[in-house]
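pls design
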């Protein structure tokens, strides 16, 4: 017993390296850059710093995966997202610890955030085979034609995760485009990306196909303009907390006519309410295809 205690005291713990999640694999940045994370008192971890080349790799993976993701039956997409909820539930204590360490919040507060996040995953999973019926329509038109409209995914969506809440904010931003059949490139909160990387680890263990969700860590000032410029990204979702960042994204997105979606939630507390989940959030990441067909005589 004494020998075991002495060994524990001499042992050096293994520090975790937080990597990028691209095409279903955890990789270091191609630039080999990393950023030390400090809590104001002590060193916490090394965070991989994604480059524009890493972003391009993520776009390539996402464009390939999005076709397969949208081709799946809606019921299967729902079951896949439900499986993500199962993985979050299985690792619930890990997420609680990660949130508590990142935000210096007490355990009950962190537990509440994780529970709401898991419930939100299951809530959106149930919409995968239902939203299309509610967003579709049969349109009255003059002449011998049948006219109907139906939603389709935009393609690849870039998301700048909210700075707070770290875990619930990332999940709330991720799910609507995923349900709509899009592939996602999620840039984690720059303040502390550890809860978002922990989310990526749960995604890797779920049945979500590689490349459908890609998670980058790094500086928004470097990656946000690159996202806006990239022609392979059809839409960007972010907050309006930084008006200069928002203006730059609008300006850089103009040449590719990229869609820009602003999160309607303005305060961290809003993410904990039911207003943070809605059919409208899914509709924001859909395009409407209208079909004309002759009805005959």
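designed seq:
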């Amino acid at each position: 017993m004494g020998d075991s205690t002495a060994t524990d005291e001499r042992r050096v713990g293994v520090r975790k390296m937080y990597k990028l999640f691209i095409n279903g694999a955890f990789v270091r940045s191609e630039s080999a850059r990393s950023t030390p994370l400090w809590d104001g008192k002590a060193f916490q971890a090394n965070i991989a710093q994604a480059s524009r080349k890493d972003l391009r790799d993520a776009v390539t993976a996402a464009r390939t995966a999005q076709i397969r993701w949208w081709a799946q039956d809606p019921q299967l997409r729902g079951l896949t997202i439900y499986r993500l909820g199962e993985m979050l539930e299985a690792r619930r204590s890990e997420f609680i610890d990660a949130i508590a360490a990142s935000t210096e919040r007490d355990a009950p507060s962190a537990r509440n955030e994780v529970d709401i996040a898991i419930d939100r995953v299951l809530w959106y999973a149930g919409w995968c085979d239902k939203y299309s019926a509610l967003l579709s329509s049969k349109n009255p038109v003059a002449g011998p034609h049948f006219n109907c409209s139906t939603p389709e995914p935009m393609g690849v969506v870039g998301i700048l995760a909210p700075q707070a809440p770290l875990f619930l904010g990332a999940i709330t931003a991720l799910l609507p485009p995923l349900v709509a059949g899009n592939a996602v490139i999620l840039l984690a909160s720059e303040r502390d990306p550890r809860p978002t990387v922990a989310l990526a680890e749960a995604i890797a263990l779920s049945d979500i196909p590689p490349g459908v969700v890609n998670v980058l860590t790094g500086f928004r000032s470097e990656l946000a303009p690159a996202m806006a410029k990239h022609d392979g990204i059809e839409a960007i979702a972010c907050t309006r907390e930084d008006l200069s960042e928002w203006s730059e994204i609008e300006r850089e997105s103009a040449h590719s006519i990229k869609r820009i979606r602003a999160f309607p939630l303005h305060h961290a507390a809003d993410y904990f309410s039911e207003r943070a989940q809605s059919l409208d959030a899914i509709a924001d990441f859909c395009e409407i295809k209208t079909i004309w067909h002759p009805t005959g005589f």
